[in-house]
Design a protein that fits this description.
The complex is a heterodimer of chains A (about 325) and B (about 300). Chain A is of the alpha/beta class. Chain A contains nine helices and twelve strands. An eight-stranded mixed sheet of chain A has the order 6-7-8-3-9-10-12-11, sandwiched between helices. In chain A, strands 2-1-4-5 form a four-stranded antiparallel sheet, with helices on one face. The longest helix of chain A has 18 residues, at about 190-205. In chain B, helix 2 (about 30-45) packs across helix 5 (about 85-120) and helix 7 (about 140-150) packs antiparallel against helix 8. The chains are: A alpha/beta (about 325), B mainly alpha (about 300).
């Protein structure tokens, strides 16, 4: 648990277009340890997917730019690797599961061929029979019958397609798996099955996972540590217990939990966080949350807050300055 | 999910890709008709010299036999020089199909490379390539072909060059636009996330998904190429007499249209049949190549 697998240092990602520049990720620091599951939580536009795409080096061409920072994976800074080397890393050491299983499979290749492709790319020493055997194994691993490998994606249901996508991602037993809202497109019962399976598989293969979601319930189920993102920054990070149980929280985290309906109380309305995410092309000065923060102080409007840590629990807020 | 143990499942036979495409294709009776007609044409073209003697029947003039109506010894009759029309039609099929297929293969390959690079890489490459294609597209196909033939001189190779150049921008455009529709889909991103290289993504993931419109366009273009070569020959810039070619045969007979109409009608029917069968096959292929329409 304590061995570092990947480290993101001072990551700044911009989306540059002719009209404006969007500051998608600002000064992000994150460490991922071997075999752990890290939940990345935040509302739409907080920069969760951008962070994942930066790790994959798959930011939209010509638009997405890593302006500053390092992403160190297994001792290599992948912001400096060439595209050709990156291709060897993708799928082999890091793989990604996309949000919508309906569209993340090629409709005209059989699922067996698609899983085999990953192996063909990264396991050059395996011959055809070995690859076919491995495909059968992986399909069994994700709970699909190997007989179905000659079928096309449209012959599968949503949950089963997501199993295929997971099989593809895990085919080479990567060290890091980026799961970008893998269960958002699925219904609740299937979601539970898939989560359970992912948890089992990652333990079995000892894969670390960054699990992107905005569902706090899912986070509690699957994650070891949780990072809360707001406007391209991590504003709070800690173990799942820290985030769910500890006394001190970033006001945004409190707001997030406050907006979950309480099963034990009668309330007429939900309690949302007032206001909207700041315009990412023109972020506010000081703490980025201050225009919406109920506990906003004078210094919040001008000074960017420091990280304040207690053990593994870190909060980026002026409230906890000593 | 079905438990494999609950009932003995019949092992699914692994159907090859081509076989399943064929199964879907043959459900379309019109397309099948097109294949039959085209296959007959191809057989005729390939075995032309087995069926008739080129020198004796298609080229040797015999004034005693001019304008024999169809039927009898010469089933399609004879033309103004006493040559057997049947023999000339058969050898004409060779020229038309040969030029059509070669032209389309050449322009399809070159056009696909241009269109695929433009569509996939986008940006400057896209702009430069497609503006060049636009220049070619701005000139009507027929005029382009005429001017290239006029510049290079008549002859089979020059006609092939002229027709291919005229067709390349059409393929480049269609390939580019099909690639653009597929390029932004998530499975392309997913393929990149697996470490697939650009050329492999284009060849394995994008083109097969975009093949439908390309194939349809190709078959339609074979048809239009056959029409253009007939038209070129008709105006005297195409295949030169005495080589039999459907268009030039019609041109030769145009002064006799009122008295010996079969000299125009029969080559016309053959052009129409070939073009129609290609169009039917194109439609059938478009449906058959899409596995989502399988059931």
């Amino acid at each position: 648990m304590t061995e570092k697998l990947a480290e993101i240092k001072d990551l700044h990602v911009l989306y540059k277009t002719d009209e404006n520049t969007v500051y998608a990720v600002n000064d992000l620091n994150l460490t991922i340890y071997k075999g752990e599951t890290l939940g990345l939580v935040g509302e739409t536009g907080a920069g969760k997917t951008t962070t994942a795409l930066s790790i994959m080096q798959l930011l939209p061409e010509r638009v997405g730019v890593i302006e500053q920072g390092q992403i160190i994976l297994d001792g290599i800074d992948i912001t400096k690797t060439t595209e050709a080397d990156m291709r060897l890393i993708r799928g082999e050491r890091v793989s990604m599961i996309f949000q919508d299983p309906m569209t993340s499979l090629n409709p005209i290749l059989t699922i067996g061929d698609q899983i085999a492709e990953v192996l063909e790319l990264h396991r050059k020493d395996m011959n055809k029979d070995q690859i076919a055997k491995r495909v059968d194994e992986i399909l069994k691993l994700v709970g699909l019958s190997a007989e179905r490998k000659h079928e096309y994606p449209h012959q599968f249901s949503g949950g089963m397609k997501q199993r295929v996508v997971i099989a593809m991602a895990l085919a080479c037993e990567p060290k890091l798996l980026l799961a970008d809202e893998p269960t958002t497109a699925l219904d609740v019962t299937i979601q539970a099955q898939i989560l359970k399976m992912m948890k089992e598989l990652k333990t079995r293969l000892n894969t670390a996972m960054i699990f992107i979601t905005h569902d706090l319930g899912v986070v509690a189920q699957i994650c070891d540590r949780v990072a809360i993102m707001y406007a391209g920054e991590i504003i709070e990070i800690g173990t799942t217990e820290d985030i769910f149980e500890a006394k001190n929280h970033h006001p945004y985290t409190e707001g997030l939990f406050g907006s979950i309906p309480d099963m034990t109380k009668i309330t007429r309305r939900l309690n949302p966080i007032e206001g909207l995410m700041p315009d990412p092309s023109d972020p506010p000065k000081g703490c980025k949350f201050h225009p919406r923060c109920p506990k906003c102080m004078e210094q919040c409007k001008t000074q960017n807050p420091q990280n304040h840590s207690a053990d593994a629990h870190t909060i980026k807020c002026h409230l906890f300055a000593k | 999910m079905t438990d494999p143990k609950s009932k003995p499942r019949v092992p699914i036979k692994k159907k090859s890709q081509l076989l399943s495409i064929w199964h879907r294709f043959k459900k379309n009776k019109l397309a099948l008709f097109g294949v039959v007609v085209l296959a007959a044409m191809l057989l005729i073209a390939v075995f032309a010299n087995v069926i008739v003697n080129y020198e004796r029947d298609a080229l040797t003039q015999n004034m005693a036999l001019r304008y024999n109506p169809p039927g009898g010894e010469h089933i399609f009759g004879t033309d103004g020089f006493g040559r057997d029309l049947f023999a000339r039609i058969i050898f004409g099929a060779r020229i038309s199909l040969f030029v059509g297929v070669i032209t389309i293969s050449v322009s399809l390959i070159i056009g696909s490379v241009i269109g695929a690079s433009a569509g996939y890489y986008g940006g400057k490459i896209d702009n430069i390539l497609m503006r060049i294609m636009d220049v070619f597209l701005a000139i009507p196909q027929m005029i382009m072909a005429i001017s290239i033939v006029a510049a290079l001189g008549t002859g089979m190779i020059n006609i092939l060059i002229a027709l291919s150049i005229a067709q390349i921008p059409r393929f480049a455009r269609i390939v580019r636009s099909s690639i653009l529709t597929v390029k932004y889909q998530e499975f392309i991103e997913a393929a990149r996330a697996c470490g697939t290289s650009n050329s492999r993504i284009i060849a394995k993931h994008i083109l097969p998904n975009a093949i439908g419109p390309i194939i349809v366009q190709a078959t339609l273009n074979v048809a239009s190429t056959i029409l253009i070569i007939a038209a070129l020959s008709f105006v005297g810039l195409g295949i030169q007499p005495p080589t039999p070619e459907w268009g030039s045969m019609m041109a030769d007979a145009k002064s006799q249209m009122r008295y010996h109409e079969y000299l125009i009608i029969i080559p016309g029917i053959f052009i129409a049949l070939t073009v129609m069968s290609l169009n039917l096959i194109g439609d059938g292929l478009r449906d058959a190549l899409d596995p989502r329409l399988k059931n």
